[in-house]
Amino acid sequence: MATSAFKTLVDTTFDSVEGYRKASESASSPAMKQALSKRLTERQETLNTLNSELQRQGEELVTEGTVSGELHQAWMKVTDMFQNGDENAAERVEEGEDYLRGKFESALNDDDLQMEERQVVQQAYAEISEGERFGDMVENQMD
Predict the structure, then answer these.
(1) In what residue span(s) does the DUF2383 domain sit (predicted)?
(2) What is the CATH number of the domain that holds 49?
C-alpha cells in the first residue's frame, strides 16, 4: 500500500502536468508554446513513472487533479497569467516549479517513503529539478 507522502507527490505531479497543458495552450509566443509543450511531455513521463509505482502496489492510478491542492492553485495562477502575457506567466511557472521541487525534497528528507517509493521519487526528482531550472530560466529571459 502506497504511503500518503508518495500519493501526495503523485497528485501534485498530476496537477503540474495539467498546469503545463493549459499553459502551453494559452501561451502567446510560438517559442513559449514549444518550450512548455516540451516540459509537458517530460512531466507526463515523470507522472507515468510515479503512477507505475502506484500500480505496482495495487493502487489506483492518479488520473485527475487535486482541486483543493496548493500546487493546483499555483498552476491555475499560471494559466490565468498567460492571458495577461508570457512574462507574467513565466513568474508563475517558476513559482509552481519551486513549490513542486520543495515537495519532492521534503519527501526525500523524511522517512515517510517505502524503499521502492524512495527509489522512484529519487528518479523523478531529477526531472522535477530540471523543471525548476526551466522555470528559473524562463523567468530570467522575461526580465
Answers:
(1) 2-110
(2) 1.20.1260.10
pLDDT tens by residue, 47-106 = 999 999 999 999 999 887 765 555 555 655 665 655 556 776 677 778 888 889 999 999
Provide the angle, in degrees to the nearest 10, between the axes of the packed helices 30-56 and 4-26: 160
Rounded (5°) CA angle 127-133-137: 140
Over the Cα atoms of the chain, what is R_g? 15
Cβ neighbours for 52, distance < 8 A, ≥ 6 positions apart: 120
Q: Is 105 helix (H, G, I), strand (E, B) or coil?
A: helix
- What's the domain range around 119? 4-58+68-142
Tally of structural domains, the chain: 1
